[in-house]
Amino acid sequence: MIDKNAMALYVKVVENNSFSRAARREGVPVSTVSRKISELEKALGARLLERSTRKLRMTEIGQDYYERCRRGLEEFETANLMVTDQQAEVSGRLRLSAPPSISDVIIVPLIKAFQVLYPKAIVSCLITDRYVNHIEDGIDLSLRVGDLKDSSLVARRLLRYRSVLVASPAYLEKAGIPSHPSELALHALVAFSSWEPTVTWVLEKLGEAHKVSVQPRIAINDYTGVQGAVIDGLGISEIPSIICGQNLINGSLVEVMPDWRFAPVALSVIYPSNRNISKLVRLFKDFCAENIEALVPYLNERARP
User: Fold this and answer.
1) In 3D, which of 146, 141, 139, 94 has the Cα closest to residue 266?
2) Do residues 256 and 128 touch, judged by C-beta distance below 8 A?
3) For position 21, which CATH number holds?
4) 109 is in which domain, residue-wise?
5) How far apart are alpha carbons 261 and 203 in whole angstroms?
6) What is the torsional sign of CA 72, 74, 80, 86?
7) Which residues lie closer than 8 Å to 95 by C-beta, 6 or more apart?
8) Cystine design at 36: which of 6, 111, 238, 280 (Cβ 3.0–4.6 Å)?
9) What pLDDT digit, counting tens, does each position of 109-166 carry?
10) Would you say 244 and 195 are in contact if contact means Cβ atoms under 8 Å apart?
């Protein structure tokens, strides 16, 4: 019989990328963690981790096993607390962090819908493009784009989306429609950027990748400003579909060269640990996962990988 405690330890080892860090967090000897994982591998008849003195790596089957164990443990914890949650009143302050440009299209709708269910929940949100330190900054949950770099945190993917090339109908009528990425240099371009004079866009079509070095006529380090400039007819730009989706649907923007696509990226909710998180935090992260796609109208069209 498989030891469920060993499964939980395996998840902790992977999330901490270390036997010793997992042991410290769980308050058990490293030898116990190592023995439990070895016994788990023996019971399964499969190697889950490749070990060396300086590196720890999951095998392919170990990766699949980790994902299933993690989901199973979360479901187990949710089931244990479900009855209490249904009876108890939810209140308190939830502290969030999110990148710029998505507060109006994602964060505000999520908070609004969540507070309909839990009207005594108070939400504070820090909008920043830096990677926050959850402990030092006092953040309960953060929404982040891209891969998780800190192995001490837990990431739950909410959705995947792509950026799209867009322009206003008026601009395209005046300047013409490019048919290949190489033609973008002939157009006025708007880009998400800070002070860099050149921005690189990588577009793919049927396995062919084309790298475009963009020298934007306008550069803004906020997609809300980028989108406003494009709607005003100031050029072509790359904008995430979760931001520009509604304007594509209502016709304020038009997708340019739809066969050429940007690589997909993930939006995830990040938190320090599944263990001992507050009920308010757990309810909000689950609410995000269950409801976020309904708030992104363009996700189910070309933006979906």
Assistant:
1) 146
2) no
3) 1.10.10.10
4) 89-158+265-295
5) 5
6) negative
7) 124, 125, 126, 138, 139, 140, 141
8) 6
9) 999 999 998 999 999 999 887 878 887 788 889 898 877 666 667 888 888 889 999 9
10) no
